[in-house]
Amino acid sequence: MIDIDDPGAADGDGSRSEPESSDRIVTITLDRPDARNALTIEGLDALAAAIESVGSTLDSPSTSPSTPMTEPSSRSADCGESPSAAGARSVPTAPVIYIRGRGPAFCAGADLDAVSDFDGDRDRAREFARLGQRVARAIETSPAIVVAGIDGPAMGGGLELALACDVRVGTPASTYGEPGVTFGLFGAWGGTVRLPELVGRGAALEFALSGRTVDAEEALRLGLISRLEDDPRTVAEAIADNASDTLAVLKRRVRDDSKRELQERREAEAFAELVARHAEDIGSVLE
């Protein structure tokens, strides 16, 4: 399940958002704690729809910190819904989206049960990769600033989800890795594009080829995360205090990249080929 928390509304754990800036932040919670928040096809659909639904009024340059924000009743985008159903819901608009994971992990990435079900089918694997890329592109093209609050593991597609965010804030307990190489896969949700952009080609190759996990301190040194904080939400709150129109314009200018779509198509093709080659290896990980 993907939970969308209204600004100032009760969080999924029953608590309420206390900071004054909370009326300018929409919180999206990855809510499969028993599966370390791994993302299925339905979960990716719901997540993309949730992100795409937020921030529509920010396209207007007249939006400012004093502009009233729409605050409907709290909604959740269930993994069983189609993208159109989730996208049709009324979702609050705010200048900042804060993505977090429920429980001890941020996100374990792609649900390997779902990948195993492809049974080596290249077309299904390609579509799955493109769906993950849709989520990443929704983050990048949203007029809202998207902040990832990472507590616990961010692995594979979970790390790629974080890499797509405008700001990545980890806690001291956060860890990061691309373990897919150990069973014949790699991150195909835009990771091969964004990882070298953020950490440099040499560091990206070593990190991805080794399949190793790094702790929060090394992630900060490498550039995988932007900040290290006990409470990542404080960074989202500080950003939300600024002018909405200025935030959106700054993001558009920094994010301008016309070549990425071609790179991601090639990435999806390569992922589909590896799923076909390593179907048995993927299945063995689940045993």
Automatic annotation (TrEMBL):
Residue stretches of biased makeup (Basic and acidic residues): 13-23
Entries under SUPFAM superfamilies matching the protein: ClpP/crotonase
Domain of life, source organism: Archaea
Single GO term (MF): catalytic activity
CDD domains on file: crotonase-like (cd06558)
Comp. bias regions, Low complexity: 56-76
UniProt GO BP: fatty acid beta-oxidation
Gene3D superfamilies: 2-enoyl-CoA Hydratase, Chain A, domain 1, 3.30.300.220
A Pfam family recorded for this sequence: ECH_1
Residue segments, region Disordered: 1-29, 54-88
UniProt similarity note: Belongs to the enoyl-CoA hydratase/isomerase family.
Name of this chain's protein: Enoyl-CoA hydratase
